[in-house]
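Q: What structure does this chain adopt?
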Amino acid sequence: MVSEQRRNNLLLAKSLLSTVGPAGTVGDIRAWLEKRRAAVAVDVRLTDFRSLREWRFEEESGDLVHESGSFFAIRGLDVHAEGGGLRNHWQQPIIDQPEVGFLGIIVQERDGLLCFLMQAKIEPGNLNCVQLSPTLQATRSNYMQIHRGRAPRFLEYFRESRRHRIWLDQLQSEQGGRFFHKRNRNIVIEVEEEIPPHEDFIWVTLGQLKELMHFDNTVNMDARTVISALGWRGSDIIPLLRHAGSARSRALLASLCKEEYEPRHLETLYWLSELKTRYLIRSRLMPLDRVSEWRVREDEIVRDDRLYFRVIGAEVTISNREVARWSQPLIQPMQEGICALVMKEIDGVAHFLVQAKLECGNLDVVELAPTLQCLTGSFRSGKPEFLEYVLAAKPEQVIYDCRQSEEGGRFWREQNRNMLVAADRDFPEEVPENFRWMPLWQLRELLHFNNYLNIQLRSLLAAVNILDV
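A:
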């Protein structure tokens, strides 16, 4: 009898190999997204803070809050960070959203293939309005209907998740530089009963999702973080992938095989524990109107030098949402960022260079991040580690290069360049103490636990395809 884990591995592998599914080809899915984009009326207008309905600045703190006391608030954050010979202190606005939301995907065998039920979801901050999103993407305030609108579609399946086969159920962090201790419940459930069709939802294969990630701003951040945690053991799927004969595919497949490299897992955990004791971050919420070097103006909260990001207000009308019209603050970056993951074959096994990164909103000091993560300030002026190498990569080294959006419910038209770069032979295996080479199986193993991999690293791992050539 095939074990449940092996069954799931084989279903995932077959779905990965399938770029044609119940909805047709990848081109058909993109055409469907365009039709949904044209079918829904969207109007997002930037406005001053006084015009934001049901939002106000608190008298005592100056914090920007919703009158219900729910959703989220823009507060001040005072940060003291130490480690690596550096000592820093700064203050900034931060999104305070202590509630845990749902990021959920329903999977089901359809026409003999494991398919993912994805939503054409419009977020006010999206560059292109509609992006492919999880089946359910909802904050606690949304699914508790604090907004007095209708409940999100398919919520009942996730509220009663134990009735179904659970593939994944884990709390994962949000952007550590923008949110204070924010996490979401990443959950994937297999539902056997017939799912009622809806014009905003579509069934796609894993192979199609991987291909769609090669198009700018198509698969949203929330979908990518959930997909990143779906993995399998290499030994289970080798028979299905024998035709994937390129050297890179073989190295990626070997990277999924756990047995030979298990001792290194403990070494990595020891390394992380040591860094968490060596680095220190003290972050505390503070009144927004006392944050130094920032100014609250009629239509923006911004630094005196206009660096990093600013907070703006928006009036939103979207015809197919649970509530058709609302107001809210959004975070607007002052520049486009870059996130890159460097891969190197070590003894025939693909390893990824990750860094232990300290961010002010982290719940547990440091989280693993991509080789290069530059989301605030000009990365060219700061010249972080490995920046020059990534930017100078030859075309044949670039496995993946795409612009991906941050979460459009909180960020205004933010996109960052996401890259996977194959290192050349001369790239050193010896790296700085806060960096480490890790195989895919180990990164996926850590995704079974809270607060190990940050959302930027998860987003890049979602784009890794063992069929890449």
